[in-house]
Amino acid sequence: MAVGVSRPQVLCPDCLRRRVPAAVRRVLGTLEDAGWQAYLVGGCVRDLLRDVGPKDWDVATDARPEAVMALFPRVRPTGIAHGTVTVLTRGGPVEVTTFRVEEAYTDHRHPDAVRFVAEIEADLSRRDFTINAMALDSGGRLVDPFGGLEDLLIHRRVRAVGDPESRFREDALRLLRAVRFAAELDLEIDPQTLAAVGPNASLLTHVSAERVRDEFSRIVTSRAPGRALEVMRQTDLLAQFLPELLEGVGVEQNIHHRYDVWTHALLSVANTPPRLELRLAALLHDVAKPRCLVVENGERHFYHHEVVGAHLTRSVLRRLRYPTAVIDRVVHLVRRHMDLHHQRDMSDAAVRRLVRRIGLEHLDDLLVLRRADRIASGNKPGAVSRGTRRLLERIDRVLAEDAAFGLKDLAVDGHDVMRVAGIGPGPAVGRILNALLEAVLDDPGLNTRPALEDLVRQYARALERGEALPRPAPEPAEAAESATAAAGPDPGREGRDDHA
Ligand code: ATP
Ligand code: MG
Q: Which amino acids bring their CB within 6 angstroms of ligand 1?
């Protein structure tokens, strides 16, 4: 321990016993009994000091990995070259890493080499931010050479350990980590640290899309996503991996909106519960508005921005390497975010078709988005518009009828179709099933075995004659998918107060 540095006791023995699982304490004890130093480090120390239960436990020691492996019966050599051994305990895995420093980062991401060292202070100095550069020993004493405790609890700031410029140049992922910790822990980024983000933002291109995605997801689902996104705009971080969103900056809308497209997106995210797909959909729902803007008689319109936006969303999320399931869900929500507007003269069949298009499992999410969208417009009272409320009532009514909204709700299945039509498996089965659904969406009374079997026979004969079967009518907006983005007004949509 460095001379003259006192180590305050920040957790009493009782608190330690209560907050640190026995299995983790035993790992520290086993190392100490063997004559080594052992500390809790990183995120778990931060969380203990904030009085939050840590998600995982990291231990730092001066014992070399081989010595650590010899001390514990169940270990996994996670990253021996970097000094990390995972000790498997009954309380879960504990990562034990040898004190180390990192040398030269020529690729702005990974150290060229690591070197084991004898002192915890040296190990802490390689860590990114002061709040992450604290260590706690088994007696509850804190090693805090950079003022992390005060930064965490008093100044409430994310501050780089050492010179921010060089720390960001070493590892560009830290640029996003700074924003992420600020967003998750509700801290400010220290001005000097913040000043070094912008000039180094372009180094983010050295970071893999997957790492960017993981940090971005945590930022988007954090408790202060709007502020974090604004910081990422101002520091040019967003320009590196999501420039499409910046197209909305300063794009004024129309009488229905108080804010520009960008601010509206931030407010939408902030008013959505912290689930990744919902938050991404809120962030991206109007991403195509700038590209769809047309001015007619002095009025600004964004025709079909949900269609263009769905395409844009897919390409953005693919680039960021989101899993297909996440992408499909977000794209669907963006594509459908205008659907909960009541349209004039909607028949019950049209309402059933709408439910079919949205998918029952997406209805609640769409409603959540609709509410966030409305709040984020800045000048509309009430959680939902009259039009939306009327549509929801009609949806409730068709749902209560126990109608069919998908192939699985039909009174017959593919086997029945093959048997009745006398055909084998093939595309004709699907075509007939879809045609049956169309018939049932028009008239739910047809959803009985005998009625559908009659229809199957009719459709099979029609197919034999080479005739086409009923198919879903294209939506007005669908035309825009193949044609240009800004086609023309969508007739018949009611409650214009609530969209554009
Ligand atoms: P969380 O687990 O909530 O993301 P954490 O602080 O535990 O937070 P990890 O990524 O698990 O973050 O890393 C553990 C510790 O390792 C950090 O607290 C920090 O001390 C150090 N660390 C992690 N990544 C970096 C990095 N890119 N540069 C410097 N130090 C880092
Ligand atoms: Mg961690």
A: 42-43, 58, 127-128, 132-133, 171, 173-174
